[in-house]
Design goal:
Strand content: under 5%
Structural class: mainly alpha
Number of strands: 0
């Protein structure tokens, strides 16, 4: 029978696994010339849906904190993610994501006083090697703009993970996720109107299907379980789970899009999964209880 800690790890891992489907969904169903529109339609409706369910607005300092986290975790990250997804093939779009566990581990050691152990550094380096093996075997030329977007997205989300852990959650994960999605979605909406303009052509049925899946499943649901994991797991553990995204992306590209999967790519997948397992096994700290670190709030 699974322990509560293992169950929490598994449920948190669902989020990056779902994000790994973004690349295939983007290339198969969405409009290639509306990058920011794709990001906006993914984030803002998901935030509104969750806000309708929780019916609670931020209070006090959580107005500006929600905006900071919303831009780091959603606004800037989504914009860069979609640029990378359009300009790079499936697994390559997540190339620099392999650096995220190391970036988070270093930031967490400075900001959260989490120990930066040799095991974490070795596992992070191994995870990066695994992602590189996946990428270097891809039969597509790497795009400089796409890679720059991937780097920016990795740094943005790594900062968001550490700050979200440091600040805690003043309400349920569903509620705080709603605040961040709306803040990030509004940020993206402004960028969309300023850069791409309003929609001039109607969305097709495949477009609407792709947006619906990404918004409801890949965003609303995925981010609720992700932020729940951030609140209860060490930051480095959560970051390592993010390595599942390129693994899922490359496997879907092989199974559905017919992309070749070379032996070294298979080895990369195995190395990535091994690095994740090594960190999870090493983390023996108890998960944060739901009420710890939260201010008293009689309305909850």
């Amino acid at each position: 029978m699974l322990s509560n800690q293992n169950f929490l790890v598994l449920t948190t891992a669902v989020a990056p696994a779902l994000w790994g489907t973004t690349y295939l969904t983007t290339t198969l169903f969405l409009q290639e010339d509306r990058l920011l529109l794709a990001a906006t339609v993914r984030a803002l409706p998901a935030g509104v849906l969750l806000l309708v369910l929780c019916r609670r607005w931020p209070r006090g300092e959580w107005w500006w904190k929600s905006w900071v986290l919303g831009i780091l975790n959603i606004g800037a990250f989504f914009a860069l993610l979609f640029i990378a997804a359009y300009r790079l093939p499936g697994g390559v779009a997540a190339i620099v994501g392999g650096l995220q566990p190391l970036v988070v581990a270093v930031l967490a050691s400075r900001v959260l006083q989490e120990r930066l152990t040799a095991r974490v550094v070795f596992a992070g380096s191994s995870g990066l090697l695994g992602v590189c093996l996946i990428v270097l075997q891809a039969q597509s030329r790497l795009d400089a703009v796409g890679l720059a977007a991937a780097i920016g997205g990795t740094l943005s989300m790594a900062s968001g993970i550490v700050l979200a852990k440091k600040w805690g959650q003043p309400a349920s994960p569903l509620t705080t996720t709603a605040w961040q999605l709306i803040a990030g979605g509004l940020f993206l909406l402004v960028l969309t109107i300023a850069i791409e303009g309003l929609i001039t052509t109607p969305l097709t049925l495949p477009n609407m299907m792709g947006f619906s899946y990404l918004s409801v499943v890949g965003t609303a649901f995925a981010y609720v379980v992700w932020f729940r994991g951030i609140a209860r797991l060490p930051a480095s553990t959560t970051a390592f789970l993010g390595l599942l995204s390129p693994v899922v992306a490359i496997l879907l590209g092989w199974m559905i899009a017919g992309e070749d999967l070379a032996p070294l790519q298979v080895a990369g997948v195995v190395i990535v999964l091994g690095s994740i397992a090594a960190v999870i096994v090493s983390k023996t700290a108890k998960p944060v209880r739901a009420h710890e670190g939260l201010p008293n709030d009689p309305t909850r």
